[in-house]
Write a structure and sequence with these properties.
Blueprint lengths: L6 H26 L4 H7 L2 H28 L5 H7 L4 H24 L1
Length: about 110
């Protein structure tokens, strides 16, 4: 069960789960309160706009990293992490990718040592 799960992979996985829980807590709250989610982003002022741009740029850069690194390491379906971020959260899929990347690197290290 723990094969190829390095401490770093587990940290990334934990961050991914925390990102999923953190973002979806607020998403569910917005749904329950029947808030205009997009409208709340636009009407809340410059601080929220700054955060939105900050996260968008980080997500785009991270998405590029995911696709490039997945191809470099021979990981299958790297694009799926980017696609899943649209229905979950990049705060979940990026650390999940990093966890899977760490596992792929550990597998490659073991192959070299064998």
């Amino acid at each position: 069960m723990t094969k190829h799960w390095t401490p770093l992979a587990l940290v990334y996985l934990g961050l991914g789960l925390a990102g999923l829980a953190g973002t979806w807590t607020y998403n569910v709250l917005a749904i329950v309160q029947m808030r205009n989610f997009i409208g709340d982003w636009m009407d809340s002022g410059p601080a929220v706009s700054s955060l939105t741009v900050d996260l968008l740029i980080a997500a785009v850069a991270g998405s590029i990293l995911i696709i490039v690194e997945a191809r470099r390491l021979g990981m299958k379906r790297g694009w799926l992490y980017v696609a899943l971020s649209g229905v979950t959260a990049f705060a979940f899929t990026f650390p999940l990718f990093l966890a899977m990347r760490e596992r792929a690197l550990e597998t490659a290290r073991e192959k070299v040592l064998d």
